[in-house]
Design a protein that fits this description.
This protein is mainly α. It has 19 helices and two strands. Helix content is about 65%, strand content about 0%. It has three domains: about 10-105, Orthogonal Bundle (Annexin V, domain 1), CATH 1.10.220; about 110-235, Annexin V, domain 1, CATH 1.10.220.30; about 240-320, Flagellar motor switch protein FliG, alpha-alpha superhelical domain (Annexin V, domain 1), CATH 1.10.220.
């Protein structure tokens, strides 16, 4: 920072720099709340500042926000305002970097804007990117859209992407910054100083829950060639149709009311007797009898049709669990206490 012509203390210099960065309107508001002597002193300090390096500006802002948070707590309730002010002073990227260090609570999901993007837009954005970037993006999607995006990629890439999702852990700010570049800076939050937990075996398993049975089998088979333990971990974390029997009666009743009878008949054709009775016991006597009659009249059906029907019911169960409508228990679901 260029030395001022007059002798001013460090605090006064920093205040002058801060006022200059905040722009004319905000600077005027600041001066209106000062005494005449303070206005003269601060104005003289501001006039004497000829240049401010980016590193100095960032330090001044960081020190200001730290003191604001420590002394008043206002920094934690004015995130939107401070982001706007800092963005005007430093630009959006540097502003968020400073704000994240001062107020980690201002960070929500690292790429929340993905929630507002349709799968096709995401596919187009990541098609030509490195598999690690693809994995990061898909891992941050909800499971249903993640499976759509994964299924739309080239088949030979799918096992590699899922493998990377399953082995993701703490993602560095640099990796998140690369992700921002892929989506052309459309994210709500930029890189932070603390690592974010993205992906993992459970995320990979949840995506697989929405895949067709043949696609699931192919991807897991390919992963098994390189890492049998990883494949087993993914399988163990998947919520499958058989897992439904471990859920509570109320959740099963709510789920079954949302399932078309024809789909349930198809799914139960491939279920063991214990699971059949468990699910039918959560229906009215009349409805359960109707399902049994339709199952007997259905005749032989292809195993792939049964599996796909079970997948669709599991996908519905997952969506309802994510919405808080039901609670799932068992393999890959919520643990019951």
């Amino acid at each position: 920072m260029t030395k001022p012509r007059a002798a001013f203390g460090p605090a006064t210099q920093d205040a002058a720099v801060l006022m200059l960065m905040f722009g004319e309107d905000l600077a005027a508001d600041i001066l209106r709340n000062l005494s005449p002597a303070e206005v003269q002193h601060l104005s003289a300090a501001a006039y004497s500042v000829e240049d401010v390096h980016e590193a100095d500006a960032e330090r001044v802002l960081e020190d200001f926000l730290t003191r604001l948070a420590d002394e008043t707590g206002l920094a934690y309730h004015a995130t939107g305002y401070m982001r706007t002010v800092l963005s005007d002073a430093l630009g959006p990227d540097r502003a968020q970097s400073v704000l994240a260090r001062i107020n980690p609570l201002s960070l929500e999901r690292p790429i929340e804007v993905l929630d507002w993007m349709d799968p096709q837009a995401i596919i187009e954005a990541i098609t030509d990117e490195h598999p690690q970037i693809m994995a990061l993006v898909i891992a941050c999607l909800d499971s249903a859209r993640g499976s759509v995006v994964l299924n739309s990629l080239e088949e030979e890439l799918q096992p590699e992407i899922l493998r990377r999702i399953a082995t993701l852990g703490s993602v560095t700010p640099e990796a998140l910054f690369d992700l921002e570049q892929v989506l052309q800076r459309k994210f709500k939050e930029s890189s932070s100083s603390s690592a974010s937990q993205i992906g993992g075996v459970r995320a990979a398993a949840r995506i697989m829950n929405f895949m067709r049975s043949d696609t699931e089998a192919r991807i897991l088979k390919d992963i098994r060639k390189d890492d049998k333990d990883l494949m087993t971990a993914i399988q163990d974390s998947m919520f499958v149709f058989d897992s439904l029997g471990k859920s509570d009666d109320r959740s099963l009743q709510t789920l079954l009311r949302s399932i078309e009878p024809e789909l349930l008949v198809l799914a139960l054709k491939g279920a063991d007797d214990t699971l059949k009775e468990r699910l039918l016991s959560c229906m009215s006597v009349r409805a359960a009898a109707g399902i049994r009659d339709e199952m007997q009249a259905l005749g032989p059906i292809r195993l792939s049709d049964v599996q796909d029907a079970q997948k669709r019911i599991v996908a519905t169960a997952r969506e309802m669990a994510d919405a808080g409508t039901i609670v799932l228990a068992g393999r890959g679901g919520e643990e019951m206490v």
